Amino acid sequence: MTKDQTLRIALPSKGALAKGTMNLLSACGLGVSRPNERQYFGSIPALPQVKVLFQRAADIFTKVEEGSVDLGITGYDVVCEEGQSHDDVIVIWDKLGYGKCKLVLAVPESWVDVSSIEDLAELTLLFRDKGKNLRIATKYHHLTQKWLYEKLIVHFSLVAVQGAMEAAPSMGYADMIADITSTGTTLRENRLKQIEGGTLIESQACLIGNKRLLQENKIKLETTQVFLELLEAQMESKKYVSITANVDGKSLDEIGDRLMYKSQLTGIAGLQGPTIAKVYSREKNSLYAVTIVVKQSMLLPAINHLRNVGGTDMTVSSPSYVFGSQSQIYESFLSKLK
Hints:
Helices cover 35% and strands 28% of the residues. It is an alpha/beta fold. It has three domains: 7-99 and 204-237 and 327-337, 3-Layer(aba) Sandwich (D-Maltodextrin-Binding Protein, domain 2); 101-200, Periplasmic binding protein-like II (D-Maltodextrin-Binding Protein, domain 2), CATH 3.40.190; 240-317, 2-Layer Sandwich (Alpha-Beta Plaits). Keywords: Amino-acid biosynthesis, ATP-binding, Cytoplasm, Glycosyltransferase, Histidine biosynthesis, Magnesium, Metal-binding, Nucleotide-binding, Transferase. Belongs to the ATP phosphoribosyltransferase family. Long subfamily. Residues 56-220 form the ATP phosphoribosyltransferase catalytic domain.
């Protein structure tokens, strides 16, 4: 395989995003091989046409944008901050289900009169009247400035900070911060509080791609389809369970009618309906095995429905994958390429 046909994927090298990404890919049958944590490169044995590059989550957007890699998994907050004017980068999947956090405005707890965005707007005017600007420490300059301007808050200045953002107000080089939080614990430990209405964006892990590189290479596009199909089918499978029960009855049709017409709730007789097969038993000649696939939330109603039609010996299993007639994610991805 030539180099330009290899699909290159950048993955987070450490932290919560790295752990979540590895868990997701492993569950999809796309486990990543990385000989040791100091190596920057890895592979996916199930997809030998894929090469993995490990990077800091904050740098993955840049790697995709410059074309060093074709795909990347990073935080949606990073994409929103860095992707202001990069047309080559497209968001393929914005919600992978892990790494959830939010970008918030936080002020010192001692500011008892500042608890909402309206209070903050009034505070900036007080600062202006004193010939000052409210100083906000953040790594998210574009997002913070744009969001505040949309709220008609304009009298502030942004302070670039490297390292622990939460220490900025107590150290005196900023008045407040705009930073990422997941639980709020670190903010509270540093005597900071989120202000009401001060959530700029909600974020989680997302999949991005280089539009130009993927458009130009059919082989990479085909590999991307396999990658997306497996991710989508595995994530879709978490929504469903498969239930099998033995039911005593006169015939396949008679049991089918009981299952379909006695169901008071939509979906408890299966997504499309039950699958019924003859059970060859030494004790009973009238047993049939009934299998239905239902949403997780309908598990107990479906169990009770099977009981009501004579179901016994019920077993429940979770599917590894659920494939639709086509991959919605891949079709959406193709439309973005065009």
